[in-house]
Structure formats: C-alpha cells, structure tokens
C-alpha cells in the first residue's frame, strides 16, 4: 500500500544517512564497549553496546540469555526518567526509540503493563503528529487508495488510516502478542564487531528474539503480529470497491477494493521490510549519536576557551 511504501522509503533514507555517517567513524568505536564480567561468568549474553560472550558469530543468533544491566546511553536525553528497562532515546533526536537498549546491565523483564505502557508512550508521542502528516502527504500526492479521495477530506482520511495502521502494528507486535507469548519486544544493541556483522545481527532480530525468561526463540510476535495487524487494517477500514464520478458527465470510474488477501500480503511484507531497516538504524544510531555529541562538545569547548592575547 502507498502509505507503507512511504514508510519504507523514509526508512531507506534514515538508513542511508546512518551508513554515510558511519563511514567516518573509526573502527575502534565499534569496539568501545568492554565485556561485562558478571555476564560472562554467569553465561549471560550481550545486551546493547557490550562485547560479551556471544560465541557463535557465524550463526548470528540472538543472545542466549537476558541481557543484564540498565540502559545508560540515553536517559539524559529527555526531561524525565523512563520506566525500568526502557530508554528515553530518540532516533535522530526525534523519532521515539524507547524499546532500544544499549550498554545494558541487569534489566528486568517487562511486565504486561510495562509493555503496553512503553508502546503507548511511543505510539502517541507528539512527534508522530508531523510524521503521519508526512506519510499522508506522500500518499495523497501518489493518489494511493483513490477511494479515500482528494482535498482536505482525502488527506484527513489518509492521516487517520496511516495513524491507525501504525498504531495497530505497534500494539500487536510489541505489546499484545509479546504479552500473550511472553516475548521481549525490546531491541538490545550488539554494539561491537564489523558493520556487516552488526547489520546481519540487526536484520535477524525480526526472526529471533528473547523470551521474558531470557531464552532465544523464534520471533512469533513480529512475524505473525505483522500479518495480523495487516489483516485487521485491510479488512476493517480500508476502502471497498465502489464507483466514483469523473470530470466527464455520466462516466463513472470503478475503484477496486483494497480488501484483498494480496493487498494484506503486501502490507505485511512492506512492514516487515521497514522493521528490518529500522533495526539497522537502531543498531548504528548510538555510534552516530556519540560522534555528533563529541563534535558538539568539541565546538562548545572551543568557544569556551579564552582567546589569545
């Protein structure tokens, strides 16, 4: 669907900007984190930003046990403290990234209430208002789903549709199914290794996740949750087939229904691909953020330094 295509396009733009920034990041930055001794001795695997005992890099599997520690990389970016086991981070200082942890130590599993709370916090964040307006504008410009119409009314329908699509997908994949299946919806940054190694790790988190008990398992919440969310949106409020008037008197235009199995599959596939791109951005964003902050601090220090005689 057009709105989903817009999301995918935006994801590509974000990913491209991250990788362009990474080109200038020293390779040592990728290995800045140090092993957590307690995690290694207890058999716990890396959370985000730590080099721990992940002994099978060729398989790129998720950590075998629950990452340990609290997120310390982004709690100072917001005016309030996040709930336990989540963060205040924002991708590119804007888009909510509350389910991503880096440099994690001992973090507790999220409760059912905690999962719903953090998903609601990100879904209804103020940044989503212009974000969905941007997606709706692209959808209107493409005239995707013609049954929604044009003009202010068409834009309003597209905005409501985009918001509903995103909200349903967020809650189904990150709150409802993870609560039922007892899976962890968080992304734990790997934070070390080559760019290809970290990219592969990020992409495969769409298929491999952790249970609430800390064991690696198939990511049923993402795979089946995306399909469920796509089916709900497609067969509930997206346009049915109908006839609309044209500029030629007496001539009607047939608009086919969007409520088809094929369209549901396209929605699911597009969202799955977008989520994979987003995970790549989440993996490398902390490196980019540290580099940007370092440059800011250097400029601030240069301005604060006393001038010569």
Order of helices and strands: HHEEEHHHEEHEEHEEH
Summing up helix and strand content along with how strands pair, one would put the structural category as mainly alpha
Radius of gyration: 22 Å
The largest sheet has its strands arranged as 4-6-7
Q: What's the mean pLDDT score?
A: 75
Report the major sheet. Answer: 3 strands, antiparallel
> Looking at the structure, what is the overall shape?
globular
Write down the domain tally.
1
Tell how many strands the DSSP assignment holds: 9
Helicity level: 40-55%
What percentage of the residues does DSSP assign to strands (E)?
5-15%
Our measurement of the CA-to-CA distance between the termini, rounded to an integer number of angstroms, reads: 64 Å
Instruction: Point out poorly predicted stretches.
Output: 1-6, 11-79
Please give the count of helices.
Answer: 8
